[in-house]
Design brief:
mainly alpha; 2 domains; about 0% strand; Tetracycline Repressor, domain 2
C-alpha cells in the first residue's frame, strides 16, 4: 500500500509539480480513505519526500550498464574504452528524461534537509562502485593517482546531469559536439598520468 501511495505521488509530481500532491487525491488513486494515508506517512511532506527519494533511486537503477561495462576490464586500454562507452551511453539523447528527473529532485533537495540526506546516501551508494573502479585503475597505474576516486565519480555524475543545461537551449548547442567535448575531456583527464 505504501509503495502505491508513493507511486501516486510520483505521478502527481511528474504531471503537476510538487504542489499538486494532495493526500485526498493520493487516497482516491490508491482506493483508500485519506486517514489510511496517515498510517504510512505522518504528513504530506513525508509522502512528498518519500516520492522524491523513490523517483530518484528508480531513475538511477537504470544507470547500471556503465558499472557492468567495467566488470570485464583487464587492461588499461579496456578500462579507457569502458569509460568512454559508459559516458557515451549516459549522454545519449534518449536519457534526457532521466537527467531531468535527477535535476528536479536535486532542486527539491536544496530546501528539504531530509530529502537532501536521502539523496546524498543514494548518490554515495550509486557512485561507490564507480569510485572503486577508478581506485582499481589508479592502483594498476592506468590513470592518474593524485585525485580522490570518489571526487572523480561525483564529477562524472555532475557532467552527465549537467548536460541538461545544454539540452534546454532548444538547439543552440550541438549536442553531438557536447558529447564529443565531454568524452575528450574525460579521456584527456584519465590519460594524463
Amino acid at each position: 500500500m505504501r509503495s502505491r501511495m508513493v507511486d501516486a505521488a510520483i505521478e502527481m509530481i511528474e504531471s503537476g509539480g510538487e504542489s499538486s500532491v494532495r493526500l485526498a487525491e493520493v487516497a482516491t488513486r490508491v482506493g483508500v480513505s485519506q486517514p489510511a494515508v496517515y498510517h504510512h506517512f505522518e504528513n504530506r511532506s513525508q509522502l512528498v519526500t518519500a516520492a522524491y527519494v523513490a523517483w530518484y533511486e528508480r531513475n538511477l537503477l537504470t544507470e547500471t550498464p556503465p558499472v557492468a561495462m567495467m566488470a570485464t576490464v583487464r587492461t588499461r586500454e579496456e578500462f579507457m574504452q569502458a569509460c568512454k562507452s559508459a559516458l557515451e551511453w549516459s549522454l545519449v539523447n534518449e536519457r534526457i528524461r532521466a537527467r531531468s528527473i535527477r535535476v528536479a529532485v536535486l532542486g527539491a533537495a536544496q530546501t528539504n534537509p531530509e530529502l537532501r540526506d536521502a539523496i546524498n546516501d543514494i548518490n554515495i551508494r550509486f557512485l561507490t562502485p564507480v569510485a572503486d573502479n577508478m581506485r582499481t585503475a589508479q592502483e594498476n597505474g592506468w590513470i592518474r593517482s593524485d585525485f580522490d576516486p570518489m571526487a572523480i565519480a561525483f564529477w562524472l555524475n555532475g557532467q552527465i546531469t549537467g548536460r541538461l543545461v545544454a539540452e534546454m537551449t532548444d538547439g543552440h548547442v550541438d549536442m553531438e559536439a557536447w558529447n564529443a567535448v565531454s568524452v575528450d575531456v574525460l579521456m584527456a583527464f584519465l590519460s594524463s598520468r
